[in-house]
């Protein structure tokens, strides 16, 4: 029986995560810059080679590789971020970094996996458990150092609190896992930053969109996809009332 795209996404994200943990261990005495460079390259090389082996007819769009414009006419495109949260990865002991592997087909995301290697967790389609019941106070997840103004506005409108985490994948995963309730970003991202996290969030029944409420569209000529909302569906209307206003 052939391996499904869902199974392959989960397998490759998990294996790339193990590789990255090995890089971190091997370079524990090295500099943060050395860990960043080695992590990005080794994970990218592994994912590209593995996809070429398992899905040779498909095209790959990776943050760390050249943009092959053949993807614009391809039926299937894998969108990967070999190491999401390079800075967090480089800081020994940090757990809020991820590996993203997603598949776009016929105009939409059809499979995806987000590995959180330092947590020993991989979230993957087709079925992702919905987050547990929400607390009384909404939790808005933001970066440690630069929470965007729109997220602060959402916090104020919802009477919520902030939760600080690193990478985009870790932030979306925190909503899926019930650690936070809302992720709003408007500071600039690319398709690989959100493709796999959005696929996983959708499988968990969460709301996903641009901050104006329009759909998130992938495999575009311009891979910049600067903003998104991922949140519990019952909070979507209130969040979009702020972000799309």
Q: What is Rg?
A: 17 Å
CATH superfamily of the largest domain: Fructose-1,6-Bisphosphatase, subunit A, domain 1
Task: Tell me the number of strands.
Answer: 10
Query: Uncertain spans, ≥5 residues at pLDDT below 50?
Result: none
Helical region count?
7
What CATH calls the topology of the largest domain is Fructose-1,6-Bisphosphatase, Chain A, domain 1
Give the name of the CATH architecture of the largest domain.
2-Layer Sandwich
Instruction: Please estimate the helix content.
Output: 25-40%
Strand order of the largest sheet: 1-2-3-4-5
How large is the share of residues in beta strands?
Answer: 15-25%
* CATH top-level class of the largest domain: Alpha Beta
The averaged pLDDT comes out at 95
Total domains: 2
Largest sheet: 5 strands, mixed
Secondary structural class: alpha/beta
Q: Regarding quaternary structure, how should these chains be classified? A: single chain
| Series of H and E elements | HHEEHEEEEHEHEHEEH
Q: What separation lies between the terminal Cα atoms?
A: 50 Å
| Overall 3D form | globular
Describe this structure in words.
It is built from seven helices and ten strands. It is α/β, with parallel strands linked by helices and 245 residues long. It folds into two domains: 120 residues, Fructose-1,6-Bisphosphatase, Chain A, domain 1; 105 residues, D-Maltodextrin-Binding Protein, domain 2 (3-Layer(aba) Sandwich). A five-stranded mixed β-sheet has the order 1-2-3-4-5, with helices on both faces. It is globular, with a radius of gyration of 17 Å. The mean pLDDT is 95. Its cofactor is Mg(2+). Keywords: Hydrolase, Magnesium, Metal-binding.
């Amino acid at each position: 029986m052939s391996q499904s795209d869902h199974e392959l996404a989960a397998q490759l994200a998990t294996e790339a995560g193990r590789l990255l943990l090995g890089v971190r261990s091997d370079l524990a005495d090295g500099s943060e810059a050395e860990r960043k460079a080695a992590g990005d390259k080794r994970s990218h090389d592994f994912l590209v080679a593995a996809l070429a082996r398992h899905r040779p007819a498909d095209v790959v769009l990776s943050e760390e590789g050249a943009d092959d414009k053949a993807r614009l006419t391809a039926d299937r495109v894998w969108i990967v971020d070999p190491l999401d949260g390079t800075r967090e990865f480089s800081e020994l002991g940090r757990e809020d970094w991820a590996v993203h592997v997603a598949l776009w087909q016929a105009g939409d995301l059809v499979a995806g996996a987000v590995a959180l290697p330092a947590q020993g967790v991989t979230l993957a389609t087709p079925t992702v458990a919905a987050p547990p019941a929400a607390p009384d106070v909404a939790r808005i997840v933001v970066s440690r150092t630069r929470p965007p103004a729109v997220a602060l506005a959402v916090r104020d409108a919802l009477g919520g609190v902030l939760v600080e985490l690193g990478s985009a994948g870790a932030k979306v995963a925190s909503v899926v896992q019930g650690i936070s309730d809302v992720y709003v970003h408007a500071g600039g991202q690319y398709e690989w930053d959100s493709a796999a996290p959005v696929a996983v969030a959708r499988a968990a029944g969460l709301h996903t969109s641009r901050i104006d409420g329009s759909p998130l569209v992938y495999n575009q000529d311009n891979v910049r996809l600067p903003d998104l909302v991922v949140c519990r569906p019952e909070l979507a209307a209130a969040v979009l009332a702020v972000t799309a206003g």
